[in-house]
Design brief:
It contains 14 helices and 17 strands. The protein is of the alpha/beta class. It has two domains: 303 residues, FAD/NAD(P)-binding domain, CATH 3.50.50; 112 residues, no CATH class.
């Protein structure tokens, strides 16, 4: 479908529809209301109301000074209170302990974020963070659960607004809500709207929801690793018998050859986050994609059993490196999350459609490796920057120019982060020394334009 009805200079952003009620969507909602002063904001979230209210959902999030600064900005008068609550519900980290280093053994890297910036790095359960952001949303933000997953594109209406459509070309907005003038795609790594930005189309070329998920992921670089993680109600200091694990430090161990990497750290009072990254097994002929250790949708009870067997097969240089085993044992299978290592093949050059009706935030804009733990931080940076660019356009103005500015502000930083993350992941899995780029990451400041 060709693009029609280009924006004119008097087009105004009055109503916004956000597709995706994760961290990026919630952050964008607050920013657009509080900073950009847009009064009508609605969020479409695919999960059920019950799932959306589940504070135990997901694993854990690492927030650094850049993410906390963004939250202070995008929540405006409530920003300081939001950050205080996040810090109180999570755990400020004081350092990372690397175990089993060849020729070194054990190395503690102090976390100097708070010393250098005045703000700490915090580990907090994902569900707890989502619930906290939701509790501070302006009352004018409406959240509709159980919808949005079937979107394949959008229509530009005669009024100049834009409506999302399903594969059957049915509009999904009810007649009682105003037609939005802007859609914010916060629909994750397999984003419909990223595909529309990338292909310069208003509709994905599919009528089958079965194949839609695959089409949404065609511009993702699928790393040859499976990441399995969870948050367990158990302090890290109790994870193994005779060894002392400090409650405010995270721990890492990389098995020789890069096949397995173990991580764990505090995620709030009495809670510990653990993550295990496992390389794909080579195929029999050694000439194609390997076999993943696990896939999304697998039976997590069986995965837990396989994971414990995998851990028992490792030969640790010291018993202290076996810090994940008890954590996994104590984790209910229903709380185990399985994710493939994926990142966007390309970021930009634009984060919005040519017609100026759709803009991307979060993983939809820049899915990246998790090796620096910056996905949430960068989605908060996105929300703050987008709102700053749109501020003052409520009554009309150069919307396309504002979105161009947003893209230019975000694309290069995200590309650099992706490159650094990929390099770090590759080196870490081999047990090689990695560059500390925290100073560059944390240097980000809220927009002043």
């Amino acid at each position: 479908m060709s693009l029609t009805k280009p924006l004119d200079d008097n087009f105004a952003v009055r109503e916004v529809l956000i597709v995706g009620g994760g961290l990026a969507g919630l952050a964008a909602a607050s920013a657009l209301v509080r900073v950009a002063e847009i009064s009508s904001v609605r969020i479409l979230e695919a999960c059920s109301e019950e799932s959306f209210a589940d504070e135990s959902a997901g694993a854990a999030i690492q927030l650094g000074p850049n993410g906390l600064k963004a939250l202070i900005y995008l929540f405006a008068d409530d920003g300081e209170n939001v950050v205080k609550e996040i810090i109180s519900k999570g755990m400020s980290t004081k350092g990372n302990v690397l175990l089993g280093l060849p020729g070194v053994g054990k190395m503690t890297i102090p976390d100097k974020a708070e010393e250098n910036t005045g703000l700490p790095q915090v580990l907090i359960p994902w569900g707890t963070l989502r619930a906290t952001l939701k509790s501070f949303l302006p009352d004018s933000v409406e959240i509709v659960t159980g919808t949005g997953s079937s979107i394949v594109g959008y229509n530009i209406e005669d009024c100049g607004g834009v409506s999302p459509i399903t594969a059957s070309v049915n509009a999904i907005l009810d007649e009682h809500w105003k037609i939005p003038t802007l859609i914010v795609g916060a629909d994750g790594k397999r984003s419909t709207f990223r595909q529309l930005v990338r292909t310069k189309s208003t509709t994905l070329r599919t009528s089958s929801l079965t194949s839609l998920r695959d089409e949404r992921g065609i511009d993702l670089n699928h790393g040859s690793r499976t990441n399995i993680k969870a948050v367990v109600q158990m302090p890290i200091s109790s994870s193994t018998g005779d060894y002392v694990y400090e409650s405010n430090h995270s721990y890492s161990y990389f098995a020789p050859g890069g096949g397995v990497a173990l991580f764990a750290g505090p995620a709030g009072s009495g809670y510990t986050y653990w993550a295990i990254s496992i390389a794909d097994a080579p195929n029999e002929n050694g000439d194609g994609p390997g076999t993943p250790f696990a896939s999304e949708g697998d039976n997590t009870t069986e995965i837990k059993e396989s994971l414990l067997r995998k851990l028992s097969e490792l030969t640790y240089p010291t018993p202290e490196c076996d810090f994940c085993r008890i954590l996994v044992e104590k984790t209910p299978p229903s709380k185990i999350l399985i994710q493939r290592s994926e990142e966007a093949m390309n970021i930009g050059p634009s984060l919005h459609t040519e017609d100026g009706r759709v803009v991307l935030v979060g993983d939809a804009a820049h899915a990246m490796s998790g090796s620096y733990g910056q996905a949430a931080n960068f989605c908060f940076e996105d929300a703050a920057t987008l709102a700053a660019c749109l501020r003052g356009l409520k009554a009309g103005g150069d919307v396309k120019g504002a979105l161009d500015k947003y893209s230019s502000e975000r694309v290069q930083r995200c590309i650099e982060m992706q490159e650094r993350s990929s390099e770090r992941a590759a080196k870490s899995m081999k047990g090689e020394k990695v560059e500390d780029v925290s100073e560059w990451i944390f240097r980000w400041e809220a927009p002043s334009f």
